[in-house]
Amino acid sequence: MGSRGGRRSTRSSSGAHRYPRSARVGETLREIIAEELVRIGDERLEFVTVTRIDVDDELNRAHVYYDSLSGPEADEEIVEALGEHRVRIQSSIGRQIRAKKTPILHFAPDDVIRAAERIDEILRADPRTAESDAGE
Known about the structure:
Elements (H helix, E strand, L loop, with lengths): L5 H35 L7 E8 L5 E8 L6 H10 L1 H12 L6 E6 L1 H15 L1 H9 L1
Parallel strand pairs: 2-3
Antiparallel strand pairs: 1-2
């Protein structure tokens, strides 16, 4: 019994299996959704990029995060457009991944990307950073 490492295998298998499966599914969904956004041709979605997708373990829900060149002021319009096309996007996913079920899609702006952009702006605007860059 001790050689099987019961506790250890439970811990490692949940982490080892969960990450690769959700990562694979998320990446596949990201590719399918990106292709479908191009096919849709909705001008509100022209500058939208799917940045990442978080899929739950049971494949019930997928949180689709996006960024847009239109900036945060366009988020409401973008989420509305994505919502209008959600069924079409899910149908495309269903046809392409050949799974028993497809996750319900939820769309949201990628705050991680935006936070990184804000940090970059702050650093560029900081006179101390500008002085150290000029001195190099």
